[in-house]
Amino acid sequence: MVRAWIDRYDPADYPRVGERVADILLEGLAGPGSRWPLVDPPLGRADAGPTEPFLRAATALINEEGYRGASVEKISARLSVTKGSFYHHNDNKDDLVANCFARTFAILRGEQDAAEARGGPGWERLTSCARALVRHQFSETGPLLRGAAVGALPDSLRSAISLTMRRLWERLAFPIMDGIADGSIRAVDATITAQVVSSMIDAASDLDRWCAAAEAGNAADLFARPLFLGVYAQTD
């Protein structure tokens, strides 16, 4: 995910960016008195429809094998349907992939909006959103499409999808800045922190590959908590 945003910085500033990322990882984000929430927020629901199984299967395959590896044959085989059934519900692969991104964007936007609607200090809104999105990776609505998939998209899709993804992830800077202002988040670089948090959420789709115990009920505690509290924070 760093490749998706590092180009906004001059190469001469890479060491400074690295120092700020390291500070976030080591020290976390919590301001004085902020605690890791113990209760998960309710998950929003993705709109179900006749193409939903294809969207989920295609998303999982693209995450695993990339855009080129996720062929119509493999998507159909994963669902145990024929290619004819695939084309009955989808015009072509590119349209399906575009719809996969639209579905992921709807989930990202929905959980961000829900966290804002619940209100509270910036820390509460940010952790609420992050916990919900990590849980989506393991729920029946998951996984979310990985940001790395953008680079392999056809030119006709790449520009608009990349811009939308960047805008949605950068929305995380709003609760971060609010948290810094209200004291619930310590003083950090809000723009870089938004990218680090989004990278964590994005990478959570692969968590079960190297942590067999990961599931919807504990994924946020295993993966998100160390980022928010710092990797050296003691567990309760």
Automatic annotation (TrEMBL):
Keyword DNA-binding appears in the UniProt entry: yes
Superkingdom: Bacteria
UniProt KW keywords: DNA-binding, Transcription, Transcription regulation
Sequence ranges assigned to domain HTH tetR-type in this UniProt record: 48-108
DNA-binding interval(s): 71-90
Pfam families documented for this protein: TetR_N
Protein name: HTH tetR-type domain-containing protein
